[in-house]
Amino acid sequence: MSASPVILKTGIQLNADKRDIIMVEINTLTTFNDFIHVNKENMILLGAPVLKGKTQDKFIKDKINDLTRAVDLANSPKPIR
C-alpha cells in the first residue's frame, strides 16, 4: 500500500474512523472532502461540548436527568428477598 501525497508531504496519517472536522473555509481543502463537517456550535471534544449554547444546554440537561434517575433509584424501597 503506497502512502498518499498528503502523508508524504506532512508525515502524518489521519485516522479515517475519527474524521470530524471543524474549520472555516473547509471547501478550499480537498484533503478533508471525506471528513464529517461539524458546525462549531455542535463541537464536542472528549464527550463534552466545547462552546456555550444549545449543545451545552442539552448536555447539562441530560446529565441532570441521569443524576435524577440515579437518586430516585437510590431512594426507592428495596424489594424484600
Break the fold down into its secondary structure elements and pairings.
Layout lengths: L4 H6 L9 E2 L14 E2 L6 E2 L2 E2 L4 H22 L6
Parallel strand pairs: 1-2
Antiparallel strand pairs: 3-4
Written account of the structure:
By secondary structure, the chain is an alpha+beta fold. The protein folds into 2 domains: 38 residues, no CATH class; 34 residues. 35% of the residues lie in helices and 10% in strands. Strand 3 and strand 4 form a beta hairpin.
What descriptive keywords fit this protein?
alpha+beta, two-stranded antiparallel ribbon, two-stranded parallel ribbon
Secondary structure class reads alpha+beta
- Gap between N and C termini: 62 Å
Please report the number of helical segments.
2
CA-based gyration radius: 21 Å
Task: Please report which band the strand proportion falls in: under 5%, 5-15%, 15-25%, 25-35%, 35-45% or over 45%.
Answer: 5-15%
Which consecutive residue ranges, at least 5 long each, have pLDDT under 50?
A: none
Q: Which range best describes the helical content: under 10%, 10-25%, 25-40%, 40-55%, 55-70% or over 70%?
A: 25-40%
**Spatial ordering of strands, largest sheet:** 1-2
- How many runs of DSSP E, i.e. beta strands? 4
Profile the largest sheet: 2 strands, parallel
Quick structural overview:
35% of the residues lie in helices and 10% in strands. The protein is an alpha+beta fold.
